[in-house]
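Sorry, I am new here, but would you mind making up a protein's amino acid sequence and the tokens describing how it folds?
***
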Amino acid sequence: MMLTLIANQWDPECAAIRTFLTRNSVVYRWLEPSDAEGHELLTRHGFTDGDTPVLVNDAGQTLRNATEERLGSFVGLHVKPTDPDYDLVIIGGGPAGMAAAVYGASEGLHTVLLEKWAIGGQSGLTSRIENYLGFPDGISGAELTDRARRQADKFGAELVISPDVDHLARSDSGFELRFTDGGSVGGKAVIVATGVQYRTLDAPGVEEFFGAGVYYFSALTEAPQCVNSDVYIVGGANSAGQAAIYFANTAASVTLLVRADNLAKDMSTYLIEQVEANPRIHVRTSTEIVGAAGDSHLQQLTLRDKRTGAEEKVRTNWLFSFIGGTPQTAWLGPDYARDKKGYLLTGPDIIVTEGTRWNLVRAPLHLETTVPGVFAAGDVRAFNGHRVAAAVGEGSMAVMLVHRFLGE
């Protein structure tokens, strides 16, 4: 199916739709409403330039006001679980969730994975992963995600682009999970692998340009528009370094803004060496953004040197943030113990943490939360490894522990 998106480049909805389509491996073409073909398509289907973004498929069907669920249905994604009950329900489609889906289904568990946005998680947006076992030349997050998706399909795991899960409770058969649209699904065991939600930049004017020059973890989607441009990236961890190297292939320059006084605190050594060796990449340590300005899109940033307090205005249309995230666990309720930042406590950390409750005679299994039968894996878990390989390992291990739980 050929899909056409008609939208203005600096429309935040356009950026969100393009990211959704790219992340879900949906082939599409993109036309500006000012283009002759774009204008003709709008007119033919009864729309004006002010109605964009508009999606048109090759059957002549159109979509406006595209929520994730409506967009998923429109492009033919699987948006509802097939069955009412499963052996294993996985919430989250990042590396931990996908590993759990592959191992759960391959080991005979009737498995469904629920993901609100796109299979692959934040790692699916990574331009290059070079320290993952078995890929000496590196692999993009998108390719790794595609391989994982095909592997999960091969073993019969059901992958669903679903509404948010906002309720998880015990039931007679195990657990009931409810969606924000009122639907539900049941499981004998649950793995929470929801990762983290990106943190927004706290500087005057920045959020005004979200989707119009300011982007979070969107390097792959926006890179084609950044050719010969001056690109600014915020962050000092691996994702920021990988993005800098990726943009440097086509951008005029890439400036990496780091609040810390060096890169060694959070970035792998091999990435630091590549960043420092690239003549197009400029690293500014002890630097923070304190302002953003523009008209319909970002045109200027104000930077502050944390050591001297000196401020500088720079011209750019492109700012990408890779400053990490926070776990989205509040929806789980008070029965689930968390650390001070909201990450789920599991296994031995439950026993040694003051104020947590564990009501069974046996000790909690290593990745088990304070609710027996609900496990956590990947970045949502306290004391996680913050690497793709670590998340994959935890997702796989969680399935082994699910088997132990179901065998009790």
